[in-house]
Each structure stands twice: as structure tokens, then as C-alpha cells.
Design goal:
- By secondary structure, the chain is of the alpha/beta class.
- The chain has one domain: NAD(P)-binding Rossmann-like Domain (Rossmann fold, 3-Layer(aba) Sandwich), CATH 3.40.50.720.
- The chain contains twelve helices and 13 strands.
- Helix 3 runs parallel beside helix 5 and helix 7 crosses helix 9.
Length: 323
């Protein structure tokens, strides 16, 4: 199988590229190596993959339609896994136009190329943030998601709508994957688990929003990659929305305790009020993913945190310029 992966050098993208290559697939990736965080970390993420002749990575932007056209015209792809996005809830409040351009218009570019070049299987990354402050838990794919509370969430919901439109009009098989707080090796340095680990390790006070009462469904990267691969190999996607989470919740204070235990260091907490755009909780109903795609997460958060801390300790020299 020949697969086009957008966001190929990022946290999830590079982990997926590694798995695709391990399974013997051919991969073309695209990543613009923007400065949202140190782009050298992304270059390190794909250093090993670039030694494989089955992998080609192109440094370009999904908002550049001409470049996408050139890539698609030169390749015959069996599937697209669209992970590229401007990430993060809080920055989206100040950069709404940028987030809309990348997450909505960029997704439209990918869908247009899929239609024009007859790529009939697309997996597109969405987010648990689309659920907003949904009062019903756990969150199900059939729940109403018409009330996003951040521009980031709104762009992700918009992407799902575009995907449905292209399925309806052109018969494309499209799965929208709602990821729930993914963490693990290569995680972006500003995300909570990575950020907290570094700050505890270096004796800095941690800013703990909502007084540590936020609940999150933390999902380990290996479980996410297994889920993506199961969906990729499924023959009858149609149009589908799929929660990929751990289906368990952990409060911020509980999370910090787990990091403390794995690091063997105590945290200094700076308790703060909730931030605009942050949801109170996330909690995935994964029954659909289990029943249709045999999705089965294997990393409870304690096990996942221990694995992440091991990676963090091993890679401190690489990470020194990340923060």
C-alpha cells in the first residue's frame, strides 16, 4: 500500500510513519516544520525513517495547493492519513485566522486532491475538543457537537463536515478520528504530560489550571497508532466518526502524582483558575471503535506515564532545546 501522510514529522505522524514502514508500506509524507515548537525535534522524529527507501518526506505546506497537486500527480496513493493541523486550544483564541486557514482550508485542499486523483480512502484527524463541555459522559460519536468552545475545536468540527460533504458528493471512504489527549514518546513539549515532567524534573512550579480538577481521557500513542492501522485496513468505512481514547478519566492532580512517582521527584504546584477554551472533562465512549475496528487500548495511564518518563530520561540531551 502506498500512503500519503500529512503532518508526517509530528508526534503522531512520525510514530505512524514508523509503523507503516515496519509493515512494509510505502509512505510519502508532508510537513512544513513550522515553529510552533522547535522544528529540530520534528527532524529528529523522522531521522530513522529517512534511512528507509520506502519513505519520502516533502517539506511543504498543505495550504500550498500547487505543491499538493504536484505530489498527487507524481504518485498513485492507496490512502491518505491526514494529521497535519495547527494544534492547541489556547493559541487558537489569538490566532483564529491561522487555525482556520490550516485546519479548514488545508483539509479542503487534501479532499480536493483525493477526489481529483481518485484516492478513495482517507483517515482525517479530528479531536475530542469538538464535544465542548458535553454534559453526557462518556462522549459518544452520536452526541451533538454543535457547541465548540474554542476556535481550534470549531475548525476540527468544520473539517468533519467537509469530510462528510466529500463522502456524500463523491463517494469517498472517509473516517474522522476523534483523538483523546494523546501522549507518549515524541509528545509536543507544551502538552501537559511533557511540560509537567520537565518542570518537575527541573524544580519549576507547575501552573495547574482549574485547580487541578480537569478530567482528561489520556491515550497512549501506541494505542492510537494501533487504532489508526486497524481502521486503515478496514474495507468498509463509508463515512465514519470514531472515538480513539482510553475510556478512562484522570484528574490533573492525579496525573501529577503519577509523574511524581515515575520521576521520583515532588512537584511544586501553582493552582490557578480555569482557562478560556479549556473543557472541563473528556471521556471517550469507544464501543464503536471496539465493535467495528477491534480497537483495544492496552495502556492504562499509569503504565503509559511510566513509559513516557523512561523515554524522557533517555532523550534529555535531544530535548534540551525544546522548552
Amino acid at each position: 500500500m502506498k500512503v500519503f501522510v500529512t503532518g508526517s514529522a509530528g508526534f503522531i505522524g512520525s510514530s505512524l510513519v514508523d509503523r507503516l514502514l515496519e509493515e512494509g508500506h510505502s509512505v510519502v509524507g508532508i510537513d512544513n516544520f513550522n515553529d510552533y515548537y522547535n522544528p529540530n525535534l520534528k527532524r529528529d522524529n523522522i531521522k530513522q525513517a529517512e534511512q528507509n527507501n520506502a519513505f519520502t518526506n516533502i517539506e511543504a505546506d498543505i495550504c500550498d495547493k500547487d505543491t499538493l497537486e504536484a505530489i498527487f500527480s507524481a504518485n498513485s496513493f492507496d490512502a491518505i492519513i491526514h494529521l497535519a493541523a495547527r494544534a492547541g486550544v489556547r493559541p487558537s483564541l489569538d490566532q483564529c485566522e491561522l487555525y482556520t486557514n490550516v485546519n479548514v482550508l488545508g483539509t479542503l485542499n487534501i479532499l480536493d486532491c483525493a477526489k481529483k486523483y481518485n484516492v478513495n480512502k482517507i483517515l482525517s484527524a479530528s479531536s475530542s475538543s469538538v464535544y465542548g463541555n458535553n454534559e453526557k459522559v462518556p462522549f459518544s460519536e452520536t452526541d451533538n457537537v454543535d457547541h465548540p468552545i474554542s476556535p481550534y475545536a470549531a475548525t476540527k468540527k468544520s473539517g468533519e463536515l467537509l469530510c462528510y460533504n466529500y463522502h456524500h458528493l463523491y463517494g469517498l471512504n472517509i473516517a474522522c478520528l476523534r483523538f483523546f489527549t494523546v501522549y507518549g514518546p515524541r509528545q509536543r513539549p507544551e502538552m501537559a504530560i511533557h511540560k509537567f515532567t520537565h518542570m518537575i524534573d527541573t524544580n519549576q512550579a507547575i501552573p495547574v489550571f482549574n485547580n487541578g480538577e480537569c478530567l482528561r481521557d489520556y491515550t497512549y500513542i501506541d494505542d492510537i497508532i494501533n487504532g489508526i492501522m486497524s481502521i486503515l485496513h478496514h474495507d468498509n468505512i463509508g463515512y465514519d466518526i470514531i472515538n480513539l481514547g482510553n475510556s478512562d478519566t484522570t484528574s490533573t492532580l492525579e496525573l501529577i502524582q503519577l509523574i511524581e512517582d515515575a520521576l521520583g521527584k515532588k512537584a511544586h504546584l501553582d493552582l490557578m483558575p480555569a482557562q478560556p477554551g479549556d473543557v472541563d472533562k473528556t471521556f471517550a465512549d469507544i464501543s464503536h471503535a471496539k465493535e467495528k475496528y477491534n480497537y483495544s487500548p492496552n495502556y492504562p495511564v499509569k503504565k503509559g506515564i511510566a513509559s513516557f518518563i523512561e523515554w524522557y530520561k533517555t532523550n534529555k540531551d535531544i530535548l534540551v532545546n525544546a522548552y
